[in-house]
Amino acid sequence: xxxxxxxxxxxxxxxxxxIALASGESKWITGPEARDAVHHLRADHDVVLxxxxxxxxxxxxxxxxxxxxxxxxxxLRAVLDTHLRTPPGCALLTQGPAVLFHGDDVPASxxxxxxxxxxxxxxxxxxxxGVDIVEVLEWFASESSSSVLVEAGGRVAAxxxxxRVVDRIxxxxxxxxxxxxxxxxxxxxxxxxxxxxxxxxRTDTSACGADIRETWERA
Length: 219
Ligand SMILES: NC(=O)c1ccc[n+]([C@@H]2O[C@H](COP(=O)([O-])OP(=O)(O)OC[C@H]3O[C@@H](n4cnc5c(N)ncnc54)[C@H](OP(=O)(O)O)[C@@H]3O)[C@@H](O)[C@H]2O)c1
Known about the structure:
By secondary structure, the chain is α/β, with parallel strands linked by helices. The protein has a single domain (about 5-219), classed as Dihydrofolate Reductase, subunit A. Helices cover about 20% and strands about 30% of the residues. The chain has helices spanning about 30-45, 50-60, 110-115, 135-140, 155-160; strands at about 5-15, 20, 45-50, 75-80, 100, 120-125, 125, 130, 145-150, 170-175, 185, 200-210, 210-219. The strands form three sheets. The protein has a nine-stranded mixed beta sheet with strand order 6-5-4-3-9-1-10-13-12, with helices on both faces. A hairpin with a 2-residue loop joins strand 12 (about 200-210) and strand 13 (about 210-219). The longest helix has 13 residues, at about 30-45. The chain is globular. The relative contact order is 0.24. The structure holds NADP nicotinamide-adenine-dinucleotide phosphate. NADP nicotinamide-adenine-dinucleotide phosphate binds next to strand 1, strand 2, strand 3, helix 2 and strand 8.
């Protein structure tokens, strides 16, 4: 049996838990100290996992560059991408191989183009809300990866919380308010009772430049 995978969810938000304006503008809500702390988090995890929404919106590298320098050991970079919408020319694939998890209904030409660009395309079970995140974690475990940092938009964040796989939240909160028309850090959880709400306990709070960093562990 594979060792369990520990999942950290990173959130970088406004005070009112928004990750972007309605227009999608999101660079940069948190300050340089928080962004550097995120690079340290990436360097400390085996895998950095995002969703194709973030790839299309931000075209991120997703590499670990603590202190502005590439970390000696880079995390595996991975994307949940049911229909393989990741562009072969995206920045992610200029930095070495990355894994794209997709469903069973993708054109062979998309797989070919992405693999030619350096991606490893891995098919997993997928449903209406995307690729099955538990199956993805099992795949990481089978590859001897034991820690995953989820750095994604609200949809993947909510999927991870709904699947009850998040062990820790690292939350960077900037001193700015974006309002209810901003994009929420977490999409719908579909809760019907407060008793069913996932609970976390705060284990640390510190200043991070002008921002606040909070660490929460699953209760
Ligand atoms: N501040 C932060 O911490 C932060 C971090 C990252 C991104 N962002 C912002 O987030 C915004 C994008 O949000 P988003 O929600 O569209 O991006 P996302 O959560 O990164 O990606 C969502 C997409 O991933 C795919 N997906 C595949 N399997 C999934 C699953 N199990 N659960 C959920 N999604 C799955 C879906 O597209 P398919 O159906 O096509 O597969 C879905 O639309 C951007 O504005 C970006 O700047 C903020």
